[in-house]
Amino acid sequence: GNSVTQMEGPVTLSEEAFLTINCTYTATGYPSLFWYVQYPGEGLQLLLKATKADDKGSNKGFEATYRKETTSFHLEKGSVQVSDSAVYFCALSASSASKIIFGSGTRLSIRP
Amino acid sequence: DGGITQSPKYLFRKEGQNVTLSCEQNLNHDAMYWYRQDPGQGLRLIYYSQIVNDFQKGDIAEGYSVSREKKESFPLTVTSAQKNPTAFYLCATARTGDNYGYTFGSGTRLTVV
Question: Any residues with CB less than 8 A from the CB of A69 and at least 6 apart, and which?
């Protein structure tokens, strides 16, 4: 079946460091891929998405590229800020009629 | 502004009581979902509905019930049969026919006292 695997946290970085959070998936066909962010005490917000191979989603300095050959959708940011501290969820949807499958989440903490 | 309203934000329940969590949306989305999130954990699907007057069980439906009498509303009842109801509950919506992902509400934190 379809599944999402993302790196376990917590991840702790210093401000201005480079961030990578790994995400790989298993799915038949060509799923859509998402990254969501959850700030403390809040719901999830869509951070970025990609709907086909080689697409790059980007938002707020974060980027992720849909890699069909490696079934990956790693989240990157060149210089993190304290305000980026949150939990990040990778997710996929196999089709417009399918439920979204979420990874287990990665907690990110940024030190000043 | 279009969005999802979950109420209340915090809810306290005595053991043995039923309690209902509200989720209202004005996004005109067809599909609605309820998730449970435990501290430090991911999301687990409780129930979902893709059309009015129809809903399906998710992965952890036992001890919960829902209704979908109108498009805008998808209330979740946590019954006394749910043995460990303390958690953060999230409602989400989605348009059908596209793949734009879910929109989430701000959540309700339920605590059994």
Answer: none
Cα A73 from chain centroid?
A: 7
Q: Which residue has the higher pLDDT, A36 or B16?
A: A36
Write down the residue that tokens 């201005």 correspond to: A16
Q: What DSSP character marks residue A99?
A: P
pLDDT in tens, A10-66: 999 999 999 999 999 999 888 999 999 999 989 999 999 999 999 999 999 999 999
Contact between A49 and B100 using a beta-carbon 8 Å cutoff: yes
Query: Distance (Å, rounded) from C-alpha B9 to C-alpha B16?
Result: 21
Out of B41, B94, B105, the one facing A43 most closely (by C-beta) is B105
Which of A41, A43, A96 has its CB closest to that of B99? A96
Measured on CA atoms in the order B20, B45, A92, A60, is the torsion positive or negative? Answer: positive
